[in-house]
């Protein structure tokens, strides 16, 4: 014991991980002779330095009905899927995947279960989310299996069954040793688990770093700490860990060839461990998808040669050129695919991204869109339109959380009333509410932010006539806005349609600019033939603030949703986060 | 529908994650009230105030 009869509590896995990392840093500094800075040497490991491997195993599920199922694991910009089970209501997959977790990286894993369909897209039947950081704070010595409720995608309050998942955060010692074991196996020709000098030399050559013979012999002696003339697995693990920090002997990943040492040294080992896993087939989940929706495409899509998804060109392929629109969820740090009907995408492309479409726009489509929106406005204000609410909720299952809505569904007498629904006061907390120097987001939306107009036109707005002057018009434009910064908040149909004030200040004026009602979908915004933001109907308000100077707030109407209402008036002092107005169906 | 906010030149420093995604032409899903960015002017003011304090 410790003298007083009470055992000290075991340190958490997270604290052990951190202290091990801290040790590594100290060792590194001592060797480099850079430990002179006392404040530096007394500092713990910064939170953003943490990185490790989480081993996630999707074991089985217990579902309400019988079918063939598969499960997807999504983390950040990666999604993996299991094999498809036999037809049963208790599928067993027992599929494992190792993923990297970093403090500043994605840590909320989503697990989705799909039923398979022979000809159409597979159907999502349930999902759950796991915060991997929570596991770090638990003191779990062994891998353990947890049963998680699978939420119904159309209602967050009902469950579709349970899924058994095991998550385990690998200790860095374990990672180092398992890595050394694998590396050793490459050149351990007599399979005795130890390396002779000749095997050790072959290994060094395999790392492709061109070390001289005498340097290799020196490293061998350094590794052979007990001086028995061979290097065993523990000795090799220690050498690789130490040496990779001091003078890397592995300059490129032996599996994928990627150059190492760009980031933290421990990340190199994690990278190589994961690469080895992919190569040896130990990982029994298929990867290469960006979102669970992509992983769930039907067989026809998978047969196609172009059925691959690259994280690298995700942005380039999004917007106008993509067959699907991807957005990055800030909360979960995960890519998600926007729900949009394929036929609508095709028709929008035809209209907004071709010269033929441009001709159509010039020859009366503007009036058609305006009339359509006015007609739709009348329809959505009629009592009959209320019956469309449940269908709308079903269409956007999992994307509208009715628990956050202030009033119950039955209270909405028309669809438009539902469309402009208010949220409970606690549903959207305002960040740094008392600090006027921090601006906040104005809407539940898909956001783009650019420090200058030039950047916005380089990366996003492709309409050739776009300019700040054109957007604001003569009555609301000030010289200070020239090449100013701009942020675009795009609302999708399923979103909460009220917009809020992003900064605190005084509303100076409102300027209404009549115009067209083109769609504000990226397909149109990214088109060089269409100038959505400078031609659509809009209302501009100027807010005067002490911290940001003048801020122009431009509410832009779109096809069908062309009615803009403000709830504040000129001269009002507004606090950031205050409700400012809403969009509704109409012209 | 869409809202665009235009800030004066050099008035705001947008959050790094929002800028990074936008430079990949990738929209970021956000909610009302989450942080957007910080005033550059105010930060500058605070720095000069601090410097003034230390000199005195």
Structural notes for this entry:
The complex is a heterodimer of chains A (587) and B (56). The relative contact order of chain A is 0.09. Chain A contains 19 helices and 23 strands. Chain A has 587 residues and is of the alpha+beta class. Chain A has a five-stranded antiparallel sheet. In chain A, 31% of the residues lie in helices and 25% in strands. With 56 residues, chain B is an alpha+beta fold. Chain B is built from two helices and four strands, in the order ββαββα. Chain B has helices spanning 16-23, 40-55; strands at residues 2-7, 12-14, 27-30, 35-39. The radius of gyration of chain B is 15 Å and the shape is globular. The chains are: A alpha+beta (587), B alpha+beta (56). Chains A and B meet through helix 11, strand 12, strand 14, strand 15 and helix 17 of A and strand 1, helix 1, strand 3, strand 4 and helix 2 of B.
Keywords for this structure?
heterodimer, A: 587 residues, alpha+beta, five-stranded antiparallel sheet, four-stranded antiparallel sheet, 23 strands, B: alpha+beta
